[in-house]
Amino acid sequence: DGTNVVFGSAAAVTATEETFTATQGQTVFTASSSLPTYIQVFVNGIKIRPTTDFSKSGTQLTLVSAATAGDELDIVRFD
User: Fold this and answer.
1) Which residues of 23-45 are buried (b: 16+ CB within 10 A; e: fewer)?
2) Which of 29, 39, 34 is nearest to 5 (CA)?
3) Which residue, 27, 37, 36, 21, is CA-closest to 69?
4) Which one, of 22, 20, 21, 14, lies nearest residue 39 by Cα?
5) Cβ distance 67 to 73 under 8 Å?
6) In this structure, are residues 13 and 5 in contact, taking their beta carbons and an 8 Å threshold?
7) Cα–Cα 20 to 30 A to 71, which of 3, 48, 61, 65?
8) What is the pLDDT of residue 1?
9) How many CB atoms lie within 10 A of CB 73?
């Protein structure tokens, strides 16, 4: 059903999503809790790449290029 992803043997991971609407020039987005090792990030439905397009530390995700007002940023967490 898309809610659980299994990596390796007997390792269950739950995927959850957190969505933000950007302000003009915004680069930093603060998640509700510390970001796990594995995340996927989408801007307006287009997947962006770690290191090249964004970095993360603790609860903060930082875009390399600033967002435009109204952009939708989705963080998919694999906890």
Assistant:
1) eeebeebebeeebeeebebebee
2) 39
3) 21
4) 14
5) yes
6) yes
7) 3
8) 42
9) 20
Q: Which two tokens stand for residue 78?
A: 């694999």
pLDDT of residue 7: 56
**Cα(22)–Cα(7) distance, integer angstroms:** 32
User: Which residue's structure tokens are 């969505």?
Assistant: 19
pLDDT in the model for residue 5: 54
pTM score, whole prediction: 0.83
β-strand partners of 46: 43
Encode the chain (79 residues) as per-residue pLDDT tens digits. Answer: 455 555 555 567 889 999 999 999 999 999 999 999 999 999 999 999 999 999 999 999 999 999 999 999 999 999 8
